[in-house]
Amino acid sequence: MKNLLQYITSQTQLPKKSVENTVKLLNEDCTIPFISRYRKELTGNLDEVQIGDIVKYKDQFEALEKRKTAILKSLEEQEVLSDELRNKIEEATDLITLEDLYLPYKKKRKTKADTARENGLELLAKIIMSQSRNLGSTEISSLASKYIKGEVNSEEDALEGARHIIAEWINERTDIRNMLRHQLERFATISTKVVKKFKDDEKAQKFRDYFDWNEGLNKIPSHRLLAILRATSEGFIRQKIEIDDEKAISKIEDRVIKSNDAASKQIKLAIEDSYKRLLLPALSNEALSAAKEKADETAINVFAKNLKQLLLGSPLGEKRVLAIDPGFRTGCKIVCLDAQGGLQHNETIYPHAPKNDTKGAMKKISSLADAYKIDAIAIGNGTASRETEQFIKRIHFKNAMQVFVVSEAGASIYSASKIARDEFPNYDVTVRGSVSIGRRLQDPLAELVKIDAKSIGVGQYQHDVDQTKLKSSLDTSVELCVNAVGVNINTASIPLLSYVSGIGPKLAENVVNYREEKGAFSSREEIKKVPRLGGKAFEQAAGFLRIKNGENPLDDSSVHPESYSVVSKMAKDEKVKVSELIGNKALLQKINLEKYISEKTGLPTLKDIIKELEKPGLDIREEVKVFTFNQNIKTIIDLQEGQLLPGIVNNITNFGCFVDIGIKESGLIHVSNLADSFVKDVSEHVHLHQQIVVKVLEVDVPRKRIQLKLHKN
C-alpha cells in the first residue's frame, strides 16, 4: 500500500491523504461519481478527473507489480535469480526498465548467438570482448583457428559466431538501450513513401498527403500519426523510423571499445550488426509504439470530450413528438411518441419523388399532429432531410409547432440491436430508427446510451486506437454524464440504469423487472426491495436515482438518503416542513451550516445540500434551440467562396472542428481558422452541437472537401 501511494502521489502531485482515502474508497468498490459527489470530506474535494487519474495510476501500478511477480517466478524457475537482480526488479518503476532487466533471461526463439554458443564460440567472444591483449590480425586469425571444428569450417566462421554473441551482449546492455532510446526520443523521424501500384488508386487518395512525408516523431500530431499508421496497415504506403545511424553507432562504440587493434575491429563489426539487426528494429518499434500510445491517448481524450458534450446535449424534455426518418423512394417513416417516448402510432408517407404525394402527406401529418397533440417534430438528418424539413414548414398547423433536425448517427445500429428488438419486437428496423430519432430530441442522453459509443460518430480513427483503453474511457464518460444528470428510476431503460453508480446491467434488469411487476417506485427506500440490490449498491446509487412526486420530496433531488436527517434537522430548526425548505432560497441562505457539521458530514457536503435544495433536480443541460440551415444550399455545388452560412458543430478534433452546413459533406474549420490568434485547445472556442455562423473559404468538389472559417458576429 505504501509503495502504491508513493507511486500515485509522484505521478499526480495530489495530497497524500486525499490519495490514500480515495484508494481506500476504490478498494471498497465505490464509484468515481459517488466518491466525487458524496465523499468530498475524505478526498479533500477531488473532482472526477483527479479521481480518474488515481484510478489510472492505481491500475498501472498493479499491472507493474503483476509483471514483476511473473518475471521473478520465471527467473527462480531458471535458477538465475541473484539478490542483486531481485532488488533491481523490485525497485523498477516502469515496464521498460523491468523488461530490459529480464531481456537476457527471456525465453526466445533460437538466435544466431545461441547457435554460436552451441558451436563452442563463447570463450572466443569473451577474449575478443575483454580487449586485454593487444591482438594483431595474425593473432586474431591464430586464435580463431583453434575453434574450427564441427559446424565451424573456417576462421571467418569462428569470428562471425563470436561477433553474434558479442552483438547479443551489446543488445542486452541497459545503458546502451537507454542511450538509443534517448536518441530516438529526441531525433527520430517518421518517413513515408507510397507503394507504387497504389499511387493512382482511388481509395489511397485520401492519404495522398503522406505519399512522400517526413516529420519528427516527437512533433507529429496525433491525427497525422494515426492516419499514417492506417495508410500503412491498408498497404498504401510504407513507413520507417530513422535516426542518424553513424552517430548512434559511434555513441555505442564510445561505450564499448577500449583499444585500437584487431579485436576492436571485430567488436566494431559486432556493434554494427547489433545496431542494425537487434537494437534499432526493436527500439524503433518501441518508439513508434510509445508515439502511437500517446496519439491514442490524445485521440481518446478528444473522443471522450466530444461524447460528453453530445450526451449532455439539450433535451426537449417530456413533450409529445412526431419523428420522421426521411427518404425519397422508400418514403418517410413517421412515428408519434408520447411525452415519455412511448410509441403510439407509425406509418409511411411519400411526399417526395418518385410518388410526390405531397398533398396526402401534408394532410396525414396535420391530422396526426392534432390526434396525438404533438408539441414538436424531429427530422433525421440523413437522405432527404432538407427536402422533408421544407415540406413540413409548408404545413399550417393549428398550434405553433417547433421543428428540429436531429443527428441520425448510430440510429441504424440501434435499430438493428438486441436492445431495440427487445423494446419493439413487433416492429421492423425502420420504425425503431424513427423512434430513436424522436427520443433523441426528447432526451439525447437516455437514447444515446443504448448505442455503442464508437458508432455515434464523434471521434476520428476510433477503430485504430487501443480498443480496451477507448472502451474504458468512453464507458467512464457515459457513467459521469448519466450520474451528473440523474435518472428517473420510474421511466429509465435498462441501458440507462446500467450506467448509474453501483447498478450495472444485471441490477438494472432487476430494477425494471421489479417496476413492471410492482408498479412505479414511490420512495428511494423501496429501491432496497429490488432483488440482489444490497446495501453497498444502494449507497452508491441512491443519490443519482430520482423519484418524481414520491413520498419524500428529497427523493427527487441529489441529496443522498444518508443526509436526509440533516435536512430534517434544518427544517425543524427553522420551524418548517422539509417541503417548505425546498426552493426557499432566502431561508436556505440564512442557515448557519457550522451547526450541522458532524464526524460524517462536513462543510463541502452541507454546501452541496443547500445548493441542491435551492433548485432541486435542476437539469445541468441547456435548453434546446430551433435551428434552420440556409435553404438555398442543397449540395456541395451550391457553395461559393465567401458565403456566410449557419452551421452546427458535429465533430471536434485537435486540428479543428467539422461543421454540418445542411448538405451531405461536413465542412472543416481548421484550428488556424477558429480565431485570429494561436489556438491551443479547439474545445475552448467551440463545443459539440453549437450553432455557429461560418464563412466558406475553399470548396474542393472532386475530393468533397470544404474549408470554413468561424465567423465572429
UniProtKB/TrEMBL annotation:
GO CC entries: cytoplasm
Record SMART domains: S1 (SM00316), YqgFc (SM00732)
UniProt superkingdom: Bacteria
Gene Ontology annotations of biological process type: nucleobase-containing compound metabolic process; translation
GO molecular function, one term: mRNA binding
S1 motif domain location: 642-711
Name assigned to this protein: RNA-binding transcriptional accessory protein
Organism expressing this protein natively: Aequorivita lipolytica
Organism taxonomic ancestry: Bacteria, Pseudomonadati, Bacteroidota, Flavobacteriia, Flavobacteriales
